[in-house]
Amino acid sequence: ICDDDFIRGLPKAELHLHLEGSLEPDLLFQLAARNGVEIGYDTVESLRAAYSFESLQDFLDLYYQGMSVLLTQEDFHDLTLAYMTRAAEDGVRHVEVFFDPQAHLDRGVALKTVLDGIESGLAEGKRAFGISSGLILCFLRHLDEASALAVLEQAAPYSHRLLGVGLDSSENGHPPSKFSRVFARAGAMGLKRVAHAGEEGPPDYVWQALDQLGIDRIDHGNRALEDPLLVERLRRDQMALTVCPLSNLKLKVVRDMAEHPLRRMLDLDLQATVNSDDPAYFGGYVADNYRAVQQALGLSREHLAKLARNSFTASFLDRAEKASAI
Ligand code: ADE
Ligand code: ZN
Question: Which residues place a Cβ less than 5 A from the ion ligand 2?
Fold first, then answer.
């Protein structure tokens, strides 16, 4: 069988996927029309042409603008089901999705609207494709601690519907330490904790995420490789890294895919996984990410199978579920 079929045929868990980042230009235009939202682009092509980024912030500006078309429960349902449909084609069997409630609350969309819409989309994806799922509520780190605490309190009645909390948006200048009390509270609520760290930010932010936020998994973590002591800590604890190769290339975290640290992470015996981050913006879903690193880094089928196994090991499925998935 060819590499494409091999990759798609590997059962995979996707652990780093921002639902709002799976909003394809076609659906974005449909929702803009349905809701009467002005988006500032005339055609799908002109919007797509704007997807060229110099940095994380450059992308985030367009990402927040794009999600302004998401207003109703039906919008969140359609967004989620579109992702599940596409993920099924790539052999995704389980997904732990991120969403950014503060970006919706600030536009007057209620948390319940967002949650109900996403959950019904996930439920339909489970029925149609057999994909299991969990939800991770992310705090926007460019906003302040009080805002994060407020959204966590608002989410408390729904905490049984959440797998965990995460931390995303502009990394530099917004260290994990800013949210240590928020994460302590989330931990006390029984929620798993993850955080973006070491995407653009320094190794010190990865240390902070581990030691001050008590995280269970690191999102990205690329720059951890600059610090040998940190690498040793991650290796010893088999701390999972949710790596996003095409995202790293599009946001210029790496200059060239051939320089991507994923191969080094595997050689260092780190628990690395491959994920799509914001597939509508970065030009590929999870199988495209596997393919990109396979080609640029010369990964073997054993490497690819290891990455797919890692994705279940690193998931928040329970032990029996992991064993049956692998
Ligand atoms: N929000 C959506 N995608 C993100 C990324 N790659 N880094 C930080 N925040 C994000
Ligand atoms: Zn991300």
Answer: 277
CB 52 within 8 A of CB 133: no
Query: Ligand 2 mean position to 169 CA, how many Å?
Result: 8
Query: Cα(270)–Cα(66) distance, rounded to whole angstroms?
Result: 35
> Is the CB of 56 inside a 6 Å radius of any atom of ligand 1?
yes
CA of 275 to the centre of ligand 2 (A): 9
Which tokens is 296 given? 């640029």
Residue 42, φ and ψ in degrees, nearest 5: -85, -35
The answer to whether residues 93 and 12 touch, using CB atoms and an 8 Å cutoff, is yes
What is the average per-residue pLDDT within 236-247? Answer: 98
Query: 276 near 16, Cβ under 8 Å?
Result: yes
- Which atom of ligand 1 is nearest to 21's Cα? 2
> What is the 8-class DSSP label of residue 107?
T
CA angle 34, 37, 38 (to 5 degrees): 130
324 pLDDT band, cuts 50/70/90, is confident
Best mutation site among 61, 67, 248, 277 for ligand 1 pocket (most ligand atoms within 8 Å of CB): 277
Rounded Cα gap, residues 205 and 245, in angstroms: 20
Q: Which fold has domain 3-315?
A: TIM Barrel (3.20.20)
Query: What ipTM goes with this model?
Result: 0.98
pLDDT at 326: 79
What ligand 1 atom has the least distance to the C-alpha of 199? 7
Whether 199 lines ligand 1, by a CB cut-off of 6 Å, is yes
What is the atom index within ligand 1 of the atom nearest the CA of 247? 6
- Greatest Cα pair distance, the chain, in angstroms, is 53
pLDDT in tens, 176-210: 999 999 999 999 999 999 999 999 999 999 999 99
Residues annotated as part of the active site: 199
- Distance (Å, whole) CA 247 – CA 274: 11
- Yes or no: say if 245 and 257 are a contact pair by the CB < 8 Å rule: yes
Residue whose CA is at the smallest distance from ligand 1 atom 6: 277
Query: Which residues is 36 bridged to in the sheet?
Result: none
